[in-house]
């Protein structure tokens, strides 16, 4: 069992002085060579790549998930993400630890945006570094798929020309629950 000094920390970050490399994450959990975060700010791919850069790495792989303008033949106006941050960070750090060990990664960083994400903007960035490209490719893809499957992050898809939207967990694919935007009946 880790001592309190070795235990991962969850921090609410109010300004850039706490996390100089990342774009002002609202929630962040970090340990050696692993960083995960949730933020309402615009994501910066270069910053996350800097988080995993190392002289021990011969490859860096960056995945940037963006909001596309359609889903299942319907025009999408934007996505809105919400989360239960303490649990989502715990899940994300667990995924990062597992993927890092399995693929012998040098470092891994995952950051998910919360709130409204307009068309063409990034909602998730995952960067991994490894001594060789094959491990980096495999590790990056596995981190993404595991995050989509397990992290406690949900999205509301808003469609053009329709009132309300559809709430989905990332793992739901085409399934979802219709939301009309009105007050809940009880």
From TrEMBL:
InterPro entries: MoaE_sf, MOCS2B_euk, Mopterin_biosynth_MoaE. One of its GO terms (biological process) is Mo-molybdopterin cofactor biosynthetic process. Pathway: Cofactor biosynthesis; molybdopterin biosynthesis. Its main location: cytoplasm. It comes from Imshaugia aleurites. It is an enzyme of class 2 (transferase). It comes from the Eukaryota. This is Molybdopterin synthase catalytic subunit. Keywords: Cytoplasm, Molybdenum cofactor biosynthesis, Transferase. Pfam families: MoaE. Its EC number is 2.8.1.12. Substrate binds at residues 132-133, 148, 155-157.
């Amino acid at each position: 069992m880790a001592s309190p000094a070795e235990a991962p920390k969850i921090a609410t970050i109010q300004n850039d002085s706490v996390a100089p490399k990342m774009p002002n994450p609202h929630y962040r959990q970090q340990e050696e060579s692993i960083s995960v975060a949730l933020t309402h700010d615009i994501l910066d791919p270069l910053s996350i790549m800097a988080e995993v850069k190392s002289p021990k790495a011969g490859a860096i792989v960056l995945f940037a998930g963006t909001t596309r303008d359609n889903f299942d033949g319907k025009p999408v106006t934007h996505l809105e993400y919400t989360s239960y941050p303490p649990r989502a960070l715990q899940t994300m750090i667990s995924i990062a630890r597992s993927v890092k060990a399995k693929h012998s990664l040098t470092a891994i960083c995952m950051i998910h945006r919360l709130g409204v994400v307009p068309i063409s903007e990034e909602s998730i960035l995952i960067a991994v570094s490894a001594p060789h490209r094959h491990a980096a490719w495999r590790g990056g893809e596995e981190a993404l798929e595991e995050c989509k499957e397990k992290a406690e992050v949900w999205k509301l898809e808003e469609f053009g020309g329709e009132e309300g939207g559809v709430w989905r967990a990332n793992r739901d694919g085409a399934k979802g629950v219709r939301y009309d935007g009105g007050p809940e009946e009880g």
